[in-house]
Recover the amino acids of this structure.
């Protein structure tokens, strides 16, 4: 991989090598077919699991490797370099696990995290609804307390890994009149009666990632599966995003890296006007610009990830910057990569059109880049008022 | 405890190999070393046997220079329990006779075992002799070119041996050696825990004194093979295309085959 050396530790180097080997040897041969056919990569999940990669983001006391957001991002980047869709079978599970990891009780962590760490179960994050997208507080799925249970009713949409997950972090409201203060997070087992998998979406990109509707029809959830307290759901969701955004950023970074490498190697082989097109300044400068943007995105993502792993507070604004910048870079780089490959780039025989399709979602999901800029602007105002105190 | 021993060889990565256009020999400088690709299937099969049998020690052995240690560590990163390096200046220039003798002495030193596995051949020497050679020295049966295992328990096996046409089904009693083909399995990717174990693993190095080898069977003097000449075979030419659906054309083809002793 053509990239700057970050002096990784021996352990970090090892997980990068494993992720690279899986990407090059196992994902590369199937990515086109799985994209075209919208096939979920069950066998890749199994390989990721056996290689211990799902353990990366889980603490050691729950059978994980006790690494952090940085290492989770390194794995996601490496997998996304080859396929940004298949990478979500990995990164999506981290997103689904974070509410439990960050806000779950000791009992909940003991019960749910080991099977996520081993890869036996994938986790999914279920927040979005038809009327609750950027306005995440507007969830209509209800949770009604009955004795020592809650009864969940409602429909979640666009849930990554929704149909294959064993564990879901689900956001519902215990009182729709209370808005944000009614939102509550629950851990839902996929075997729960009344939980149905609805429509499977037909998407522009990340087609090997499964995106489905989840329908909750009188689902009886034990009260012990409530994360935090009633009414803390919005905080759980936002706190999760603060930690998970570097993962999306890393997905975008990997996609951009893959596109840049494809453009670079093509430009060194393609001959027009009797010369390799890499000898033309128009092409050379496009690829140089790609590399500049990619390295800048990488520097931001790695630093924010390490900042989060250090336990620092108020990192949300910075993780939003990493997500926004990297995803905008991914869109620019992949679009330019298609341009470098010209007509061939537009064809499915070459991977760059897929990378361009895959890149688009990174500007949209886990908070659109417009919402991210809101997060960043609020963060800046808060930091300024904190300094003035 | 049951035991499965795998023999591996470190070879130049042929995907990276270049030929010197003047001397027609391999340029070895700067070419990365890898585990002989066929040996990867042997390693995977040993791991599968362990998964199935439980309570089994998997051991990987290689004979080579000190840097062959890297090949053993890679096998450990995939899940092999133990690596042993057979390395001694006295072993240098051993041919397949001497190499298989040295490996057989190492197996004797290791102790009891249930199955020995090797890749069908190495991509550098291409002899396919060392595996069966070890079995001969140890006086145990060997089954070459195994493409499928129907049954395998300690002391009993039923396997399929690939032939140029079809295959044989072979039953073996007692301990035995097999050489394996790529059809047998798909080698696994190392795990993180495996990689960390590989970095920390102690790799014992056994030399001629440790193995109590007979000088007459090791190294250059113990190797009956003498390379008389090495040459690069000329590349295959394009061939002749004959078209037509009449009898005369077919007769012409038969005549050509006969005259050129092609059948």
């Amino acid at each position: 991989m053509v990239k700057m050396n970050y002096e990784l530790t021996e352990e970090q180097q090892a997980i990068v090598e494993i992720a690279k080997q899986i990407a090059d040897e196992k994902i590369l041969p199937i990515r086109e077919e799985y994209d075209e056919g919208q096939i979920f990569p069950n066998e890749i999940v199994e390989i990721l699991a056996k290689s211990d990669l799902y353990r990366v983001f889980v603490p050691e006391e729950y059978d994980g490797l006790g690494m952090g957001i940085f290492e989770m991002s390194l794995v996601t980047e490496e997998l996304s370099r080859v396929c940004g869709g298949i990478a979500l079978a990995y990164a999506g599970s981290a997103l689904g696990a974070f509410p439990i990891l960050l806000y779950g009780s000791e009992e909940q962590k003991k019960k749910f995290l080991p099977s996520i760490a081993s890869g036996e179960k994938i986790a999914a994050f279920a927040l979005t609804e038809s009327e609750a997208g950027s306005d995440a507080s507007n969830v209509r799925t209800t949770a009604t307390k009955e004795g020592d249970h809650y009864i969940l009713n409602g429909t979640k949409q666009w849930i990554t890994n929704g149909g294959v997950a064993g564990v879901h972090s689900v956001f519902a409201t215990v009182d729709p009149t209370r808005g944000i203060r009614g939102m509550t997070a629950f851990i839902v087992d996929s075997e729960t009666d009344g939980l149905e998998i609805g429509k499977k979406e037909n998407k522009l990109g990340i087609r090997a990632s499964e995106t489905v509707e989840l329908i909750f029809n009188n689902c009886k959830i034990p009260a012990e599966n409530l994360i935090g307290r009633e009414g803390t759901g919005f905080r759980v969701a936002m706190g999760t995003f603060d930690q998970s955004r570097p993962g999306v950023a890393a997905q975008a970074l990997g996609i951009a890296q893959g596109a840049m490498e494809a453009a670079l190697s093509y430009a060194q082989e393609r001959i027009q006007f009797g010369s390799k097109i890499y000898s033309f300044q128009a092409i050379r400068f496009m690829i140089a610009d790609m590399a500049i943007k990619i390295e800048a995105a990488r520097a931001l993502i790695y630093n924010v990830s390490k900042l989060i792993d250090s336990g620092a507070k108020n990192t949300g604004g910075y993780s939003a910057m990493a997500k926004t910048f990297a995803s905008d870079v991914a869109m620019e780089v992949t679009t330019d990569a298609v341009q470098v490959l010209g007509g061939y780039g537009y064809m499915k025989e070459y991977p760059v059109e897929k990378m361009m399709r895959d890149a688009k979602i990174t500007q949209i999901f886990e908070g659109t880049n417009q919402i991210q800029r809101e997060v960043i602007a609020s963060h800046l105002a808060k930091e300024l008022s904190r300094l003035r105190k | 405890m049951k035991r499965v021993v795998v023999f591996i060889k470190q070879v130049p990565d042929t995907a990276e190999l270049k030929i010197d256009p003047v001397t027609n020999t391999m340029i070895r400088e700067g070419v990365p070393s890898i585990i002989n690709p066929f040996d990867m299937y042997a390693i995977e099969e040993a791991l599968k046997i362990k998964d199935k049998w439980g309570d089994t020690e998997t051991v990987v052995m290689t004979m080579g220079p000190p840097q062959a240690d890297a090949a053993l560590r890679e096998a450990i990163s995939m899940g092999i329990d133990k690596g042993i390096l057979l390395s001694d200046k006295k072993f240098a220039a051993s041919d397949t006779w001497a190499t298989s003798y040295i490996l057989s002495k190492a197996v004797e030193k290791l102790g009891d075992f249930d199955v020995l596995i090797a890749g069908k051949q190495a991509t550098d020497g291409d002899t396919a002799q060392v595996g069966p050679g070890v079995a001969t020295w140890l006086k145990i049966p060997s089954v070459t070119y195994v493409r499928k295992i129907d049954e395998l328990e300690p002391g009993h096996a039923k396997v399929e041996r690939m032939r140029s046409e079809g295959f044989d089904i072979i039953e073996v009693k007692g301990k035995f050696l097999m050489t394996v083909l790529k059809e047998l399995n798909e080698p696994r990717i190392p795990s993180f825990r495996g990689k960390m174990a590989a970095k920390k693993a102690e790799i014992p190095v056994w030399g001629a004194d440790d193995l109590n080898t007979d000088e007459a069977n090791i190294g250059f003097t113990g190797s009956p093979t003498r390379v008389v000449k090495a040459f690069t075979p000329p590349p295959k030419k394009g061939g002749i295309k004959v078209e037509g659906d009449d009898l005369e054309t077919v007769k012409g083809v038969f005549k050509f085959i006969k005259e050129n002793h092609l059948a």
Remarks:
- Chain A touches chain B through 18 residues (CB under 8 Å).
